[in-house]
Write a structure and sequence with these properties.
330 residues; alpha/beta; 41% helix; Rossmann fold
């Protein structure tokens, strides 16, 4: 009996030690201090709702003779500026200045408990560009960043040279078919995230074929779940889920007045709140091979570039094809 207790105690100690070691080696702070970005990160001060916040951004000069033009990159909900490296390098090598913000609540920026809105985010990004002396820019938005880029172009058409949308979400009004859940309910869902659940989600939702290099995306997102501040990040994730759900842009595509190009991975089936639908219901929505064309038809003069055998993140899954298409469109 004593031997058995001793063995169980040893197993418990080993398990506890391994878990602590995992936390020590894999933990990532919710503001990604220990995630290396490809270029130096600066901070733009934002004051809102009585809080002094910091908006992280990279400002990368062209590596070849400047063409006098700027591209701004808006990240998706589960990402930050770190996943734009190849796009940045491709653009700067062709003479573009590139601005890469981490939106408030994401990446290295402040994780604030505030009312999140695409209108407010657009205003903050406009203020950043004004401070940097940029009067006009090409705005490229991926996923959630596509909703923000659309809002930016609607609010500031005179500052938007071109609107570039890479598999944007919000091509449907999720309120029509996704059951409503409260922010508190979504918060409890976000709290259950683990590196393993994040990997499964990325494998099934973002890419057509999983590759080892995608593990870095899991390492960053999964690492924050070990942080003692993860509940704060989970709550902000729930609040920004509500922002996406409650602030559609799909009804305003007709009002876009700037040249627009959509870049669409045709195998994408992203639905915000997909887990709340039955399998049969999921098949009815999020079909980007249809949504891309439908959206292009709504935007006056819009063009669409589609990619076969590609999912939600063309700039990572098919970087060469995406870069050729992007540079050609610019």
């Amino acid at each position: 009996m004593l031997k058995r207790i001793s063995l169980l105690a040893t197993i418990f100690l080993l398990y506890g030690s391994s878990k602590l070691l995992a936390q020590k080696t894999d933990t990532i702070s919710i503001t990604l201090e220990n995630v290396k970005y490809p270029y130096p990160v600066k901070f733009f001060p934002v004051n809102t709702e009585g809080q002094n916040l910091r908006m992280a951004y990279m400002d990368i000069s062209p590596t070849k003779l400047s063409n006098g033009r700027t591209v701004v990159l808006f990240h998706g909900k589960n990402f930050g500026g770190y996943y734009w490296t190849d796009v940045i390098n491709s653009l700067t090598s062709r003479g573009f200045r590139v601005i890469v913000p981490d939106q408030i609540g994401f990446g290295k920026s402040s994780k604030a408990f505030i009312h999140y809105s695409f209108h407010q985010m657009a205003r903050w990004n406009k203020a950043l560009l004004d401070t940097l002396g940029i009067k006009k820019a090409n705005i490229l938005g991926h996923s959630m960043g596509g909703m923000l880029a659309t809002r930016f172009a609607l609010m500031y058409p005179e500052q938007t040279e071109k609107l570039l949308l890479e598999n944007p979400i919000g091509l449907e009004d999720y309120r029509r078919f996704i059951p409503y859940i409260s922010t508190e309910e979504q918060y409890r869902t976000e709290l259950r995230a683990t590196p393993e659940s994040i990997r499964r989600y990325y494998q099934t939702s973002y890419f057509t074929v999983w590759k080892p290099q995608y593990e870095e995306l899991v390492r960053v997102a999964g690492g924050t779940t070990f942080s003692g501040d993860f509940p704060r990040l989970a709550r902000i994730a729930a609040i920004t889920y509500a922002m996406i759900y409650e602030q559609p842009v799909v009804y305003e595509f007709y009002h876009i007045k700037v040249p627009t190009i959509l870049f669409i991975g045709k195998e994408d089936k992203t639905i915000v709140g997909k887990a709340l639908l039955s399998t049969d219901q999921q098949a009815l929505y999020g079909q980007y091979r249809l949504l891309g064309k439908q959206t292009a038809a709504k935007i006056p003069g819009a063009k669409i570039i589609e990619f076969d055998a590609c999912g939600h993140i063309p700039h990572i899954e098919i970087p060469t094809e995406f870069t050729v298409a992007l540079l050609g469109s610019l």
